[in-house]
Specification:
Blueprint lengths: L3 H10 L2 E8 L3 H12 L4 E5 L14 E2 L11 H17 L4 E11 L6 H14 L8 E3 L1 H7 L8 E12 L3 H14 L3 E4 L1 E9 L2 E8 L5 E11 L5 H8 L5 E14 L7 E5 L5 E7 L2 E5 L3 E3 L8 H14 L13 E12 L15 E5 L4 E5 L6 H14 L17 H14 L13 H9 L3 H10 L15 H10 L5 H8 L2 H4 L2 H6 L2 H10 L3 H14 L12
Parallel strand pairs: 1-2, 1-10, 2-7, 4-12, 10-18
Antiparallel strand pairs: 3-6, 4-6, 5-6, 8-9, 9-10, 11-14, 11-15, 11-16, 12-13, 13-14, 17-18
Helix pairs in contact: 2-6, 2-9, 10-12, 13-17, 17-18
Enzyme class: oxidoreductase
GO molecular function, one term: oxidoreductase activity
Organism: Congregibacter variabilis
């Protein structure tokens, strides 16, 4: 059952003392836990919701070097992000993949189209030429290569390379949580930090299990606040004053049936001047994003947000029928937490940097992580290790590796065994890739367990939910290893089923009942009804008014 691992970890938290307690299981907390655990630090991690249930599951699914920051002359940031992107490509070749971005520049844009192309050449050079070279495109070439693009007002365009996540952002974040667990971290989702008090050089922490309301306690020498948009509120609760704080920018994406057969990211500048993407997502297309100042990190998609995206895509793409609201399969919404100093305002809103800041309080042994991007996550992990060491925590294995896919010899052995089993011949005809590639990318060394299961029960390789590329044996493995507490954790974050399958198809899927039984055992009926009620009530995210800063 999927809660067994969590129950074990909750027991391991209670009454124990750790070097570091990390609060927040988004990308910043996940890499911090993986880096610290990998280098031998005794670390615990909690999140009051599911892992990656906030900002880290609502991104554009891109790992990119930040080409747009060239416009604001943030060359050091772009250089750093390009290096980080290249390292992600090297360390995660099955997950972080190069993809071409196809950009159209409209007449009257603030820069001449060829000048934008020259910027892409500079970007390529700053990326150490690790991707394919950019090229300039005339309006005629754009129309020939991508007939769906409306070129009536196009001045020209360009094609360049960046990277994207083959699965989804939340799955990538969980890979760091799983890596941390494998290296000794004790982590639990749906656990809230109710109170933390400094006493005798440590933090006395009171935790509450959000599922059972049971209270746990632990001591930690250092607390790392990795709560993303909620960093400021936790610091206020703990009485920690900081130089930095957050401003919030809301971004949304709409997911629809595939708009074009192209495997490129189609890139435009929306009517408000910011970058606007059509991103391939298997058989679907993810469209966005917006950039709206808000005062609260708890946000939803408004009718205005939705219409902005629809109006822009219908203006920029030539389709037989315009994309309508009823064509939307799923929506993604989150806030970008932007790190600013206490006195800094938002007069240049879109110009605000997306770089992260790490602030330590040596007197309180407390660290806050402000801002950040998925692309720069490996740097965050390393910087947290340095910050923890500076607070007096011994790092036993400072040079140890803590990220990346298993070494090539392990993959070769897996592929050999998969071939001997005839795994790829068992792939469902509707699947987008062979089972061997999918199993390896999602589970790494744990994929050997899938081969063992298929040998003993060949039927376990069958898909459980139509249009969703998850087999019975994968869900069994998920139940043991991925700490799924609610069905949404699996349907939206460990997988992306909820984001590519319509709600009515999910509800009618016969395999959903069996998947729930595998994940939750006797609690399956309750968890299934809980999830279906949320699906019925959340076909469109509740409307909310945009509160200006």
């Amino acid at each position: 059952m999927s809660t067994a691992l969590r129950d074990k970890n909750l027991s391991s938290l209670d009454g124990q003392e750790y070097d570091v307690l990390i609060v927040g299981g988004g990308i910043n907390g996940a890499v911090s836990a993986a880096a610290l655990a990998g280098k031998g630090v005794r670390v615990a991690l909690i999140d009051r919701g599911d892992f990656a249930s906030g900002v880290s599951s609502n991104s554009s699914n891109l790992a990119w070097g930040g080409i747009k920051y060239l416009e604001t002359l943030e060359f050091l940031l772009v250089n750093k992000l390009c290096r980080s992107r290249n390292e992600l490509m090297r360390a995660y070749p099955a997950t972080v993949k190069e993809i071409r971005f196809f950009t159209t520049i409209q007449r009257g844009f603030r820069f001449w189209s060829f000048f934008v192309f020259l910027g892409s050449v500079l970007y390529w050079l700053m990326g150490r030429c690790k991707t394919r070279a950019p090229r300039y495109l005339s309006p005629k070439a754009i129309k020939k290569l991508e007939p769906e693009i409306n070129t009536s007002r196009a001045a020209g365009g360009l094609e360049y390379s960046d990277c994207y996540l083959y699965d989804n952002d939340a799955r990538f974040v969980f890979s760091f949580i799983r890596r941390a667990l494998d290296m000794g971290c004790v982590a639990a989702n749906y656990v809230n930090l109710e109170q933390a008090t400094r006493r005798d050089g440590s933090w006395d922490c009171r935790l509450r299990d959000c599922e059972s309301d049971e209270i746990y306690s632990l001591r930690a020498r250092v607390v790392v606040n990795a709560c993303g948009p909620w960093v400021d509120s936790l610091n206020t609760m703990l009485g920690v004053e900081t130089q930095y704080r957050h401003l919030f920018s809301k971004g949304i994406h709409l997911i629809v049936d595939r708009v074009t057969d192209s495997r490129r990211v189609l890139t435009f500048f929306a009517s408000d001047g910011r970058l606007f993407f059509l991103i391939p997502m298997g058989p679907k297309t993810c469209i966005g994003t917006t950039d709206t100042p808000v005062s609260d990190p708890s946000v939803g998609v408004t009718a205005q947000d939705r219409q902005f995206v629809l109006d822009n895509v219908n203006q920029l793409i030539d389709l037989r029928e315009p994309i309508r609201e009823e064509d939307v399969i799923a929506e993604r919404v989150g806030v970008r937490p932007l790190a600013v100093t206490g006195s800094q305002g938002a007069t240049d809103w879109v110009q605000l940097s997306r770089k992260h800041e790490i602030e330590s309080n040596s007197e309180l042994a407390h660290i806050s992580i402000f801002g950040g991007k998925l692309t720069d996550c490996l740097n965050v992990g390393e910087e947290i290790v340095d910050a923890v060491a500076a607070l007096g925590i011994t790092v036993p294995k400072p040079k140890a590796d803590w990220y990346g896919e298993p070494r090539g010899s392990v993959k070769s052995l897996f592929m050999q065994q998969a071939s001997q089993l005839g795994l790829d011949e068992m792939t469902d005809p509707g699947s987008s890739e062979p089972l061997s590639e999918r199993f390896w990318r999602r589970y790494g060394e744990a994929a050997f367990q899938l081969l063992d299961r298929i040998r003993e029960a060949p039927h376990s390789v069958e898909l459980l939910i139509e249009h969703a590329e998850y087999t019975r044996c994968e869900i069994e493995l998920t139940a043991r290893r991925e700490m799924v507490v609610r069905l949404e954790d699996f349907m939206r974050r460990r997988s992306k089923i909820e984001q590519v399958v319509r709600a009515e198809d999910i509800r009618s899927a016969p395999g959903l009942v069996e998947a729930s039984q595998i994940l939750f055992g006797d609690a399956a009926p309750e968890r299934l009804q809980e999830y279906l009620a949320a699906v019925d009530g959340g076909a469109k995210t509740s409307e909310e008014e945009v509160a200006p800063l």
